[in-house]
Amino acid sequence: MTEHKPTRTAALAEAIAIMARLRGPDGCPWDREQTFDSIKRHTLEEAYEVFDAIDRRAWPELKDELGDLLLQVLFYAQMAEEAGYFTIEDVAANLNAKLIRRHPHIFGDAVASTAADVTQTWDAIKKTEKARQSGGRFLDEVAQHMPAMIEALKLGRRAATVGFDWPKVDGLFEKLAEETVELRAEVDRGADPAVQEELGDLLFTVINLARHLGVEPEFALRAANRKFRSRFNAMETAAGGVEGLKGATLDELEEMWKSAKESLANKLS
To answer: DSSP assignment of 92-118, as one string?
Structure first.
């Protein structure tokens, strides 16, 4: 391990220097124009591209995508240094301190024999830190500007720590049925604002159901998207192209869907 450290340090130092040059007076016009707000959407896109590479087990691509994600960190840190907020060294130092502080079973005298023990210790330390920093309400720890699905999952987990949760998964299935009935009633009334609200309640319940089942809803939905994409592509091929789909009746499309579903299932078996 020791012989690799100088090389790793040099590579990161070069990346930091390149970013500083790109943002410098004689740097790239595009890079110099960017702000924290303009870069945000790129950060989210790069994070999802990392997820996609992992899902596809595309390890060479993952290396590239992680580099793109690292670029986002370097970009933010460079802009922050220019504004006098903090430096990339401050970011690393803060991370190092946090990792040591939240792993007392490694860097201190605490004992954690299982992953569950580690999670419990981590959550307890994090809770203390957040309370000290914000002094706010219990749910303030959950950021409001993250993707809605992640926020819903974190809200459910956070509320569950004080016992505000469904004791059994059966209650969630009942709640799911209840929310579905309420949504249908508002759809029948044609009340648009109420439809959005009830649909939101239904989605929130589904995400909490995933939490109780030990399923990451983001990963489950991504898998469903891939499955839909594969079946639709098979339909398009069977129809001789998208024009063939456009000219088909609903019954014909349904038959093509069933055929594609069976065909792909047979390939997997």
So the answer is: HHHHHHHHHHT-HHHHSS----SHHHH
What residues contact residue 156 under an 8 Å CB cut-off, 6+ apart? Answer: 165, 204, 207, 208, 211
Q: Please say whether the beta carbons of 137 and 157 come within 8 A.
A: no
Look at residue 35 and give its three-state secondary structure. Answer: coil
Secondary structure of residue 1 in the 3-state scheme: coil
Structure confidence at residue 249 as a pLDDT band (50, 70, 90)? very high
Indicate the pLDDT class of residue 149, thresholds 50, 70 and 90.
very high
Query: 225: helix, coil or strand?
Result: helix
**pLDDT of 25-74, one tens digit each?**
999 999 999 999 999 889 989 998 998 899 899 999 999 999 999 999 99
Tokens matching residue 47: 């994070």
C-alpha distances out from residue 172 to 148, 157, 169, 178, 216, Å: 20, 14, 5, 10, 16
